[in-house]
Amino acid sequence: MILQCAQGVIISLLIAAISFSQIVQANPSADVPPSHLSPAHLRLLKYETKELFLHAWDSYMNYGFPADEVTPISCQPYGPDFFDLDDTVRNDAMGNTSSTILDNLDSLIILEEWDRLSVVLDYLEGTPDLFNQNTIIQVFESTIRSLGGLMSSHLLLETLRDDPQSRASEVECIKKYDGFLLELALDLGYRLIPAFKTTTQMPVPRINLSKGVKGVPARLQKETCTAGAASPALEFTLLSKLSGDLIFENYTQQTFWKLWSSKSPLNLLPMTLDPLSSLWKDSTTGIGASVDSFYEYAAKMSILFDDKDMWNVFKTSYKALLTHSLYEPLGTVNSGGAIFSNIDVNSGRLASVWLDSLGAFWSGLQVLTGQVRDAVRTHMIYLKIWNTYDSIPERLDFVNRHSETGRPIQLEWYPLRPEFIESTYYLYRATRDPMYLQIGERVLELLQTKFKQRCGFSGFQNVLTGELQDRMETFVMSETLKYLYLLFDAEDKVLLHTNLMDNKNWVFSTEAHPLWYDKRKTVPTIKKKLEDRRINNENSIRSSLLDRITAKFNMYGSLSDNITIAQKAPHLYPNYYTTGDQENVVKVDPYEERFNQCEVSPFSTGPFTSSGYYTLKNLFSSNAIYGNVLKRPKHLGPHKDIELNENFYNRFSLVQNPLECERLPTTELSDVVLGNINFMSSIQISKLPLMKPKGEKHEYDLWIPKMAFSRLKLEKLEVDKIDTMNNRITKEYIESFFIEKSDPLFTIENGTTIVSDVKVDSTSVLRVLQVNGVDVDPRGLIWTSPYLGETLKYTSRNRVVLEGMVVENILSWW
Ligand SMILES: *[C@@H]1O[C@H](CO)[C@@H](O)[C@H](O)[C@H]1NC(C)=O
Ligand SMILES: *[C@@H]1O[C@H](CO)[C@@H](O)[C@H](O)[C@H]1NC(C)=O
Ligand SMILES: *[C@@H]1O[C@H](CO)[C@@H](O)[C@H](O)[C@H]1NC(C)=O
Ligand SMILES: *[C@@H]1O[C@H](CO)[C@@H](O)[C@H](O)[C@H]1NC(C)=O
Ligand SMILES: *[C@@H]1O[C@H](CO)[C@@H](O)[C@H](O)[C@H]1NC(C)=O
User: Fold this and answer.
1) Is 255 in the pocket of ligand 3 (CB under 6 A)?
2) Which residue CA neighbors atom 8 of ligand 5 most closely?
3) Nearest atom within ligand 3 for CA of residue 559
4) pTM of the prediction?
5) Ligand 3 near 201 CB (within 6 A)
């Protein structure tokens, strides 16, 4: 028997997916086509992805251009609704500025589609008034799509033009590229930056491209989200670095740091605020919509601008999320699918049980920041969702409170968002595990068979019924198809994967635009350049654009003083407090260690011989735990578990190492907060790497001098239950904690031992799995010392008693 999953749910799912006996008996080399995920096969997948991109691009150029988008089913140009300003879902990303082009110039460069590129470069060069539009757009959306797209293409074109190694330097449109995309970017930047000039330093969300803030009705400016306010700092700081006009950096960085200094005592930022009153409008946070790119851009700005403060923001936030937001039901603790849930920023408690489609980006960011093990686990949840819905619904409850009758899906559309495939790309680059290619192949197949339309690609309007949308947002090409194409580039042939990009601290923007900045180069001031160009272009079609940006530059950019970013130095809560001179204790923050090591191989087998994915414990726990939510809509046909694709399984699972599912635990899990949660981030958690007096090593142990003010994840061990380590708890084991039953239990108060009659439940024992989000190693113990005023109780054998139960793995140091 190979599959030992205890849960009937899991087994029936597996049987539904593929025949059981086939898994067991298949010979790994016999009937598997040798081409499966071979280099030649991957080249084919890459080629097919490019074909899809070109289909969408050509449809846009034939039927949509110069509007912002093309509608994929009806083949019509599509732009803002000039009559209904309140249709912000439609209007926010469309300024009547040919957004599809702006968002995809760099895609054309990456695909080396020079003829198509040349056509649109000519168009942009001849359209200096591109942004002089009487339209209202959202500042964040046009920053990431248009401003980022223009700067990225500018950087790529300059590199291709100037790098002697570049294979494209002889292409005509590249040879003659003179930097005009940066001028368009500056023009757009000057139009957007007034949104940040508020008295509160919090930006209003929208701007009238030709008339500024005044051209936007007040009702559209009432609310902005944390991601929308904070993240433009990345593109705008880069625009300052590339142009020499510091105004962009000044305003957007002030906003970023002001937001960060408004975090809760738990180091969490809520999702929405009122920019005019500068007040938070809610007290919830998470990793998805409205706050996602805050974390992403803290990490990416730290890379792009070599900014240590930004790195601290990311680290502090990540630790806070591990502590409060990481949701691991039994059966997934430390392995299996993990969810970062929405929580209250003040209490850390679960605030809602939905996951959103945008949150699928998180595992990509975890890879980028070195948290590969965590990344595999968060990605796994989205894989299960994809298996069920052939997509990621915009918002779904991961706990279906109404079980059979309830609807787990809250928002039922899927506009072909890129986040799941983006994370798959990051995970593949980090692990080179073929599972991630297999996932890509399935996504490609769905794009080809289900989502492809006459003029592009349609996502689901309703994943439950299969109804499609007649809209193709610009990110379908600029992100979804781009990441898929890059995923299949296992041979590193695409420009971005070649040595052309060596020595560049480049990152993908949140819209998949590669951006970089070389701080060794002196900051260029384009003032002189602009003057020269104005003289040379005096009568050219571009003179109006040059006049405009030169005037703005003279207004702001001539400032000679360095701008100080007032609130930049954030107050970071130290994770320690001084404990006196404890011998044998080295103060190490176990969280910090996560960032000190480079996790490159979370799996136990090497690439391409087999998939390490099958060595993951609890690979199928989530199928059972979330079985209520993962209900495949009828119109999609039979369930497809990508990880159980028969060919792939036979080829990559290694029959010698058969798929084993651990039993799901049956113990109870609870979360206990001791003391005031607001002081939590100031308690010290250390490792004990030195010798105990008796000479035993403490390398797995934790030292927590003050248990008060901590948050514990507890597992309740009872006879005959299966614990999170896959053991059945025996009577003997529980009894071992109560051998000396006659021993009086006692408490320690004010440093004095007081015999008391505390009653302890002798049929169960508690185990601490996490303290303040820090995992307790199953081999280790937690040491603490009775602290003055602490209300903990201790047994005569120095174990802590909590909630009337003895704790298995906390011991008093004395
Ligand atoms: C949209 O842009 C086009 C140029 O591409 C222009 O002709 C048209 O007038 C604009 N529409 C509006 C309503 O401003
Ligand atoms: C932009 O602002 C101008 C001036 O206030 C206004 O007349 C125009 O209607 C605004 N545009 C839109 C699309 O509302
Ligand atoms: C920088 O921004 C602050 C407000 O955020 C503003 O008061 C100041 O004038 C700006 N400085 C420059 C040089 O733009
Ligand atoms: C501005 O900053 C640069 C780099 O930090 C420094 O070299 C220069 O002296 C500063 N200029 C002024 C006016 O403070
Ligand atoms: C512990 O100290 C507090 C205040 O210092 C006092 O009120 C309390 O009575 C003391 N308890 C014992 C058992 O001495």
Assistant:
1) no
2) 750
3) 13
4) 0.89
5) yes
Catalytic annotation on 113? no
Q: Do 677 and 789 belong to one domain?
A: yes
Distance of alpha carbon 772 from alpha carbon 707, whole angstroms: 10
Is pLDDT larger for residue 757 or for residue 286? Answer: 286
For ligand 3, atom 6, name the residue with the nearest CA.
251
For residue 616, tell me if it sits in a domain. Answer: no
**CA Rg, the chain, in Å?**
29
Q: Are residues 175 and 321 in the same domain?
A: yes
pLDDT of residue 578: 40
Is 720 inside a domain boundary?
yes
The CATH number given to whatever domain includes residue 511 is: 1.50.10.10
Query: Would you call 592 a catalytic residue per the annotation?
Result: no
Ligand 4, atom nearest to 561 Cα: 13
- pLDDT (tens digit per residue) in 51-95: 999 999 999 999 999 999 999 999 999 999 999 999 999 999 999
Q: Which of 600-614, 621-635, 654-668 has the lowest mean pLDDT?
A: 600-614
Q: How many domains does the chain have?
A: 2
Distance 560 CA to ligand 4 centre (A): 9
Query: Does any domain span residue 776?
Result: yes
- DSSP line for 722-785: B-TTS-BPPHHHHHGGGSSTTSPPEEEETTEEEE------TTEEEEEEEETTEEPPTT--EEE-
The CB of 746 under 6 Å from ligand 5? The reply is: no
pLDDT over threshold 80, residue 415: yes
Q: Structural domain of residue 793, as residue ranges?
A: 665-812
Report the percent of the chain where pLDDT is more than 70. 84
The closest ligand to the CA of 750 turns out to be: 5
Residue of 292, 412, 701, 715 with catalytic role: 292
Q: Is the dihedral of CA 156, 158, 161, 164 positive or negative?
A: negative
Tokens 């590199």, located at residue: 159
With CA atoms as reference, report the closest residue to 494 among 482, 477, 505.
482
Q: What's the confidence (pLDDT) of residue 16?
A: 33
**Nearest atom of ligand 1 to the alpha carbon of 67:** 5
Atom 10 (ligand 5) nearest CA: 750
Nearest CA among 269, 303, 274, 310 for reference residue 286 = 269
Q: What is the mean pLDDT of the chain?
A: 85
Task: Dump pLDDT digits (tens) for 12-30.
Answer: 333 333 332 233 333 444 4
Q: Is residue 438 part of a domain?
A: no
pLDDT at 33 over 80: no
* CA dihedral of 500, 502, 503, 504, whole degrees rounded to 10: 70
Backbone angles phi, psi at 147, to 5 degrees: -65, -45
Mark whether 552 and 688 lie in a shared domain: no
Whether residue 679 sits in one domain with residue 560: no
* CA proximity to 686, closest of 780, 785, 589, 814: 589
Determine whether 147 is exposed, middle or buried from the number of CB atoms within 10 Å of its CB (0-12, 13-18, 19+): buried
Name the strand (E) or helix (H) holding 367: helix 362-368
Residues with CB under 6 Å of ligand 4 are 561-562
* Closest ligand 3 atom number to CA of residue 254: 5
| pLDDT recorded at residue 19 | 30
SS3 content of the chain, % helix, strand, coil (to 5): 40, 15, 45
CA 214–ligand 3 middle distance (angstroms)? 20
Select which of 69, 394, 412, 662 is catalytic: 394
Annotated catalytic residue 141: yes
Residue 182, helix vs strand vs coil: helix
Query: How would you classify the pairing of strands 342-344 and 395-397?
Result: unpaired
Active site residue 292: yes
Please tell me if the CB atom of residue 254 comes closer than 6 angstroms to any atom of ligand 3: yes
The answer for 594, left when phi > 0, alpha when psi is -120 to 50, beta otherwise, is alpha
Sign of CA dihedral 52, 55, 58, 62: negative
Reduce the secondary structure of 489-524 to three states and give it as a string: CCCCCCHHHCHHHCCCCCEECCCCCEECCCCCCCCC
267 and 146 in a single domain? The answer is yes
